[in-house]
């Protein structure tokens, strides 16, 4: 097991990364609180907690004060899952060991949150706030050029070569992403036709009760579609979980940008009421955000990085099933706002 040896009376900076492929995780150190100061490389207002919550790919930086004198304390991680999807409930452990601790001293254990501790995850998420200082301002877009609603979930497609005649898929706005044989960025840069289309829908093509009774047709559409954005345009994206087959928490990741998580809630997003409760002052800045089971999360970002940028579920199984799409951000003015040419040694296959 991993051992972290520490001195009494010190403060340590811990950088915690969830490197799991398919598990959102709780993290605790027995007998010690942690002060969160940063997530996904963006400073936060410090807040104290006994438990961190991280989705796959998320990072959290926290201060640990070693004030217990001597002793051996368990470091533990355990999974979170608040739906019918089965997970390995094994608790991974390491040890925090104070210098001069005798081997005979018993280990101080801890109690992990229940596997379905939804409230624990919501409290942690709601406690995260951008530092929003003069040196590190929270530049939240206050006006929106593109207002998007993406539903995310899984489905079932027919499969002639599968033993049971069907296969699991995942989709955004009921579109399962098909990986191209030529990179989208390369096709965009060189003007290669037939690789992708820029007609990804900004809202579901057939609205329904996303978290209520689901349609009987579980089949998805397929395509290599992108959503086109002008350089420096502002985007509000509401990520809406659905209950197709089984509702599930989806850690969602955007390449190429940080974003501000301005709102979240359970059930269906209400465009008339929910934006009134947005935090546009000091929302947490991240690049990966968990969408609550049968709920929604609203993010805002400025499209100031030209190129092709994936947006996808950070559960590896869902990404491979097609729960992804791409934003194509057009060039702005001048070389600093333009996609750079590919390297001369770019492999041709």
Largest sheet: 6 strands, mixed
Ends: how far apart?
A: 42 Å
Integer count of domains: 2
| Count of DSSP-assigned helices | 3
Q: Could you state the CATH homologous superfamily of the largest domain?
A: Cupredoxins -  blue copper proteins
What is the annotated CATH architecture of the largest domain?
Sandwich
User: What is the strand content?
Assistant: 35-45%
The coarse silhouette is globular
Report Rg. Answer: 22 Å
- SSE class: mainly beta
CATH class of the largest domain: Mainly Beta
Helix content: under 10%
Arithmetic mean of pLDDT: 95
- Count all strands and give the number: 23
SSE string, helices as H and strands as E: EEEEEEEEEEHEEEHEEEEEEEEEHE
Could you tell me the CATH topology label of the largest domain: Immunoglobulin-like
Low-pLDDT ranges: none
Protein name: Laccase
InterPro entries: Cu-oxidase_2nd, Cu-oxidase_C, Cu-oxidase_fam, Cu_oxidase_CS, Cu_oxidase_Cu_BS, Cupredoxin, CuRO_3_LCC
Domain Plastocyanin-like: 2-100, 208-332
Family: Belongs to the multicopper oxidase family.
Please, could you describe this protein's structure?
- One of its GO terms (molecular function) is oxidoreductase activity.
- InterPro entries: Cu-oxidase_2nd (IPR001117), Cu-oxidase_C (IPR011706), Cu-oxidase_fam (IPR045087), Cu_oxidase_CS (IPR033138), Cu_oxidase_Cu_BS (IPR002355), Cupredoxin (IPR008972), CuRO_3_LCC (IPR034289).
- It is found in: Secreted.
- This is Laccase.
- Belongs to the multicopper oxidase family.
- The chain has 349 residues and is mostly beta strands.
- The chain folds into two domains: 3-127, Sandwich (Immunoglobulin-like); 146-337, Immunoglobulin-like (Sandwich).
- The protein has three helices and 23 strands.
- Strands 1, 3, 6, 8, 9 and 10 form a six-stranded mixed sheet that branches. Strands 12-11-16-21-18-19 form a six-stranded mixed sheet. A five-stranded mixed sheet has the order 15-23-22-17-20.
- A hairpin with a 2-residue loop joins strand 4 and strand 5 (42-49).
- It is globular and about 70 Å long.
- 37% of the residues are buried.
- The model has no long low-confidence stretch (mean pLDDT 95).
């Amino acid at each position: 097991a991993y051992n972290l040896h520490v001195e009494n009376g010190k403060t340590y900076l811990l950088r915690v990364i969830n490197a799991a492929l398919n598990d959102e995780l709780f993290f605790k150190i027995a007998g010690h609180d942690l002060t969160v100061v940063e997530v996904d490389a963006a400073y936060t207002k410090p807040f104290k907690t006994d438990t961190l919550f991280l989705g796959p790919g998320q990072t959290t930086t926290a201060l640990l004060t070693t004030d217990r004198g001597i002793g051996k304390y368990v470091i533990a991680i355990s999974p979170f899952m608040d739906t019918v999807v089965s997970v390995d409930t094994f608790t991974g452990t390491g040890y925090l060991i104070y210098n001069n601790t005798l081997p005979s001293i018993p280990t101080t254990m801890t109690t992990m949150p229940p596997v379905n501790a939804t409230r624990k995850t919501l409290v942690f998420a709601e406690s995260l706030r951008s530092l929003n200082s003069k040196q590190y301002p929270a530049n939240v877009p206050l006006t929106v050029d593109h207002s998007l609603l993406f539903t995310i979930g899984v489905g079932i497609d027919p499969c002639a070569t599968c033993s049971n005649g069907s296969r699991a898929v995942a989709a955004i706005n009921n579109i399962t992403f098909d990986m191209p044989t030529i990179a989208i960025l390369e096709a965009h840069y060189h003007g290669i036709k037939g690789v992708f289309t820029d007609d990804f829908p900004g809202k579901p093509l057939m609205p329904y009760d996303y978290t209520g009774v689901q349609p009987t047709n579980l089949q998805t559409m397929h395509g290599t579609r992108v959503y086109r954005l002008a350089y420096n345009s502002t985007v509000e994206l509401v990520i809406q979980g659905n209950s197709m087959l089984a509702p599930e928490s989806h850690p969602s990741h955007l390449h190429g940008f940080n974003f501000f998580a301005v709102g979240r809630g359970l059930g269906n997003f209400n465009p008339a009421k929910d934006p009134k409760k947005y935090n546009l002052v000091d929302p947490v800045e991240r690049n990966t955000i968990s969408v609550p089971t049968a709920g929604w999360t609203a993010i805002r970002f400025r499209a100031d990085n030209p190129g092709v940028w994936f947006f996808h579920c950070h559960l590896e199984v869902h990404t491979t099933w097609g729960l992804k799409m791409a934003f194509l951000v057009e060039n702005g003015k001048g070389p600093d706002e333009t996609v750079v040419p590919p390297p001369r040694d770019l492999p041709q296959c």
